[in-house]
Amino acid sequence: xxQFWEAVAEIKARRGVSRGKAEAMLRQACASEVIxxxxxxxxxxxxxxxxxxxxxPIEPREWHEHQIDMMxxxxxxxxxxxxxxxxxxxxxxxxxxxxxxxxxPSASPQAQLxxxxxxSRLAWxxxxxxxxSGLPDCLKIPPIxxxxxxxxxxxxxxxxxxxxxTFARVVKLMRSAQTI
Length: 180
Fold this sequence. Notes:
- Strands 1, 2, 3, 4 and 5 form a 5-stranded antiparallel β-sheet that branches.
- This protein has 8 helices and 5 strands; from the N terminus they run βααβββαβααααα.
- Helix 1 (4-15) packs across helix 2 (19-31), helix 6 (118-130) packs across helix 8 and helix 7 (141-155) packs across helix 8 (164-177).
- By secondary structure, it is α+β, with helices and mostly antiparallel strands.
- Helices cover 52% and strands 13% of the residues.
- The protein is elongated and about 60 Å long.
- The protein folds into 2 domains: 2-87, no CATH class; 103-177, no CATH class.
Protein backbone atom coordinates (compact mmCIF):
# COMPACT_ATOMS: atom_id res chain seq x y z
CA UNK A 1 0.00 0.00 0.00
CA UNK A 2 1.14 3.54 -0.71
CA GLN A 3 -0.19 6.84 0.56
CA PHE A 4 -2.73 8.64 -1.63
CA TRP A 5 -0.48 11.70 -1.87
CA GLU A 6 2.45 9.54 -3.05
CA ALA A 7 0.31 8.11 -5.84
CA VAL A 8 -0.81 11.63 -6.80
CA ALA A 9 2.82 12.74 -7.02
CA GLU A 10 3.61 9.77 -9.29
CA ILE A 11 0.68 10.61 -11.59
CA LYS A 12 1.84 14.25 -11.77
CA ALA A 13 5.39 13.20 -12.62
CA ARG A 14 4.49 10.59 -15.23
CA ARG A 15 1.47 12.27 -16.83
CA GLY A 16 2.51 15.92 -16.51
CA VAL A 17 -0.83 17.02 -15.03
CA SER A 18 -1.71 19.35 -12.17
CA ARG A 19 -2.16 18.08 -8.62
CA GLY A 20 -5.92 18.63 -8.84
CA LYS A 21 -6.18 16.64 -12.07
CA ALA A 22 -4.01 13.85 -10.64
CA GLU A 23 -6.20 13.66 -7.51
CA ALA A 24 -9.37 13.55 -9.63
CA MET A 25 -7.92 10.77 -11.82
CA LEU A 26 -6.96 8.68 -8.78
CA ARG A 27 -10.33 9.21 -7.06
CA GLN A 28 -12.11 8.09 -10.25
CA ALA A 29 -9.97 4.95 -10.47
CA CYS A 30 -10.77 4.12 -6.83
CA ALA A 31 -14.49 4.83 -7.34
CA SER A 32 -14.61 2.55 -10.38
CA GLU A 33 -13.01 -0.33 -8.39
CA VAL A 34 -9.86 -0.36 -10.51
CA ILE A 35 -7.71 0.46 -7.48
CA UNK A 36 -8.34 -0.88 -3.96
CA UNK A 37 -8.09 1.79 -1.26
CA UNK A 38 -8.37 2.03 2.50
CA UNK A 39 -8.58 4.80 5.09
CA UNK A 40 -7.43 5.27 8.66
CA UNK A 41 -8.85 8.05 10.82
CA UNK A 42 -6.45 10.31 12.66
CA UNK A 43 -6.56 13.43 14.82
CA UNK A 44 -3.91 16.00 15.52
CA UNK A 45 -2.71 15.84 19.11
CA UNK A 46 -0.50 18.85 19.55
CA UNK A 47 1.58 18.94 16.37
CA UNK A 48 1.51 15.17 15.83
CA UNK A 49 -1.11 13.09 14.02
CA UNK A 50 -2.40 10.11 16.02
CA UNK A 51 -4.30 7.19 14.53
CA UNK A 52 -7.84 6.80 15.85
CA UNK A 53 -8.41 3.22 14.74
CA UNK A 54 -7.25 0.56 12.30
CA UNK A 55 -7.33 0.98 8.50
CA UNK A 56 -10.63 0.01 6.88
CA PRO A 57 -11.54 -0.55 3.23
CA ILE A 58 -13.11 2.33 1.32
CA GLU A 59 -16.22 1.24 -0.53
CA PRO A 60 -16.41 2.54 -4.12
CA ARG A 61 -19.70 4.31 -3.32
CA GLU A 62 -17.86 6.37 -0.67
CA TRP A 63 -15.62 7.79 -3.41
CA HIS A 64 -18.76 8.80 -5.34
CA GLU A 65 -20.12 10.62 -2.29
CA HIS A 66 -16.96 12.24 -0.83
CA GLN A 67 -13.37 13.17 -1.52
CA ILE A 68 -12.18 10.81 1.21
CA ASP A 69 -8.62 12.12 1.10
CA MET A 70 -9.86 15.63 2.04
CA MET A 71 -12.74 14.68 4.33
CA UNK A 72 -13.21 15.29 8.06
CA UNK A 73 -15.79 13.10 9.79
CA UNK A 74 -18.33 14.06 12.45
CA UNK A 75 -15.79 13.35 15.22
CA UNK A 76 -13.27 15.77 13.70
CA UNK A 77 -11.03 13.02 12.32
CA UNK A 78 -9.25 13.36 9.01
CA UNK A 79 -8.12 10.28 7.06
CA UNK A 80 -4.89 8.80 5.91
CA UNK A 81 -5.83 7.27 2.58
CA UNK A 82 -3.77 4.51 0.98
CA UNK A 83 -4.07 2.77 -2.37
CA UNK A 84 -2.91 -0.70 -3.36
CA UNK A 85 0.50 -0.31 -4.98
CA UNK A 86 0.13 -3.15 -7.51
CA UNK A 87 -3.35 -1.95 -8.58
CA UNK A 88 -2.04 1.61 -8.90
CA UNK A 89 1.04 0.67 -10.96
CA UNK A 90 -1.02 -1.56 -13.24
CA UNK A 91 -3.62 1.19 -13.74
CA UNK A 92 -1.01 3.88 -14.40
CA UNK A 93 0.94 1.71 -16.85
CA UNK A 94 -2.29 0.68 -18.59
CA UNK A 95 -3.42 4.33 -18.67
CA UNK A 96 -0.18 5.34 -20.36
CA UNK A 97 -0.63 2.58 -22.92
CA UNK A 98 -4.20 3.57 -23.79
CA UNK A 99 -3.39 7.27 -23.91
CA UNK A 100 -0.49 6.39 -26.23
CA UNK A 101 2.08 8.21 -24.11
CA UNK A 102 5.52 6.61 -24.47
CA UNK A 103 8.17 7.43 -21.88
CA UNK A 104 10.08 9.55 -24.42
CA PRO A 105 8.29 10.40 -27.68
CA SER A 106 11.49 10.45 -29.73
CA ALA A 107 13.10 7.47 -28.01
CA SER A 108 13.90 4.43 -30.12
CA PRO A 109 12.07 1.18 -29.31
CA GLN A 110 15.28 -0.17 -27.74
CA ALA A 111 15.62 2.94 -25.55
CA GLN A 112 11.98 2.58 -24.53
CA LEU A 113 12.63 -1.05 -23.56
CA UNK A 114 15.65 -0.04 -21.48
CA UNK A 115 13.50 2.59 -19.70
CA UNK A 116 10.74 0.16 -18.72
CA UNK A 117 9.83 -0.06 -15.03
CA UNK A 118 7.47 -2.03 -12.81
CA UNK A 119 5.21 -4.60 -14.44
CA SER A 120 6.45 -3.77 -17.95
CA ARG A 121 10.07 -4.38 -16.92
CA LEU A 122 9.09 -7.67 -15.31
CA ALA A 123 7.27 -8.79 -18.48
CA TRP A 124 10.30 -7.89 -20.62
CA UNK A 125 12.67 -9.76 -18.30
CA UNK A 126 10.43 -12.86 -18.37
CA UNK A 127 10.06 -12.85 -22.16
CA UNK A 128 13.82 -12.55 -22.65
CA UNK A 129 14.40 -15.42 -20.20
CA UNK A 130 11.80 -17.69 -21.84
CA UNK A 131 12.95 -17.00 -25.41
CA UNK A 132 16.68 -16.19 -25.17
CA SER A 133 17.26 -16.71 -28.90
CA GLY A 134 14.27 -14.65 -29.98
CA LEU A 135 10.50 -14.61 -29.87
CA PRO A 136 8.84 -16.29 -32.88
CA ASP A 137 6.84 -13.80 -34.96
CA CYS A 138 3.86 -16.16 -35.16
CA LEU A 139 3.50 -16.40 -31.36
CA LYS A 140 0.43 -14.57 -30.01
CA ILE A 141 0.14 -12.75 -26.67
CA PRO A 142 -1.83 -15.35 -24.59
CA PRO A 143 0.81 -18.11 -24.89
CA ILE A 144 3.57 -15.55 -24.30
CA UNK A 145 1.78 -14.32 -21.17
CA UNK A 146 1.18 -17.90 -19.98
CA UNK A 147 4.79 -19.09 -20.36
CA UNK A 148 6.33 -15.84 -19.10
CA UNK A 149 3.82 -15.82 -16.22
CA UNK A 150 5.05 -19.24 -15.12
CA UNK A 151 8.63 -17.94 -15.23
CA UNK A 152 7.63 -14.91 -13.14
CA UNK A 153 5.90 -17.08 -10.52
CA UNK A 154 8.99 -19.28 -10.32
CA UNK A 155 11.62 -16.50 -10.21
CA UNK A 156 9.61 -13.70 -8.52
CA UNK A 157 7.02 -15.51 -6.35
CA UNK A 158 5.88 -12.31 -4.60
CA UNK A 159 5.26 -10.41 -7.85
CA UNK A 160 1.93 -10.17 -9.65
CA UNK A 161 1.94 -11.44 -13.23
CA UNK A 162 1.44 -8.49 -15.61
CA UNK A 163 -1.78 -8.27 -17.60
CA UNK A 164 -2.36 -8.98 -21.28
CA UNK A 165 -2.12 -5.31 -22.29
CA THR A 166 1.27 -5.00 -20.57
CA PHE A 167 2.61 -8.06 -22.40
CA ALA A 168 1.15 -6.76 -25.70
CA ARG A 169 2.90 -3.40 -25.26
CA VAL A 170 6.24 -5.02 -24.40
CA VAL A 171 6.06 -7.52 -27.28
CA LYS A 172 5.25 -4.69 -29.69
CA LEU A 173 8.30 -2.74 -28.47
CA MET A 174 10.52 -5.83 -28.64
CA ARG A 175 9.43 -6.60 -32.17
CA SER A 176 9.92 -2.96 -33.18
CA ALA A 177 13.40 -2.95 -31.69
CA GLN A 178 14.20 -6.34 -33.25
CA THR A 179 15.82 -7.36 -29.98
CA ILE A 180 13.95 -10.59 -29.59
